[in-house]
């Protein structure tokens, strides 16, 4: 049941990111940012398993690094809106990445698991 909640938190977060990225007045709305952070925490706690941590963290880093990649696309302000969508997706994924990183550090530092 908790994996379904995490999955739906991710899907709802992505939908919010796309809509808010194209509605300029929403993209900087504090309430939307807080909702994305909460959904990201839910995703991080409920969806990311130990074997998925590395892939998840690499994907999150890729999202953050590619920020601004579409800014030069000026047709219908599409570049601006796509950049805003990806910034919001990074906002959604950052809390989940923090949770995943802490889980990874916890697993590495846990005593009694030496090989």
Work out the helicity level. Answer: over 70%
In terms of structural class, how would the helical and strand content be classed?
Answer: mainly alpha
When the domains are counted, the total is 1
Tertiary shape: elongated
What's the topology here?
Elements: H1 2-22, H2 24-27, H3 30-46, H4 53-65, H5 78-109
Helix pairs in contact: 1-3, 1-5, 3-5, 4-5
Describe the fold and architecture.
It contains 5 helices and no strands. Helix 1 packs antiparallel against helix 5 and helix 4 (53-65) packs antiparallel against helix 5 (78-109). It has one domain (2-109). By secondary structure, the protein is an all-alpha fold. The chain is 76% helix and 0% strand.
What's a quick, concise take on this entry?
The protein has 115 residues and is mainly alpha-helical. The protein has 5 helices and no strands.
List keywords for this structure.
5 helices; single chain; elongated
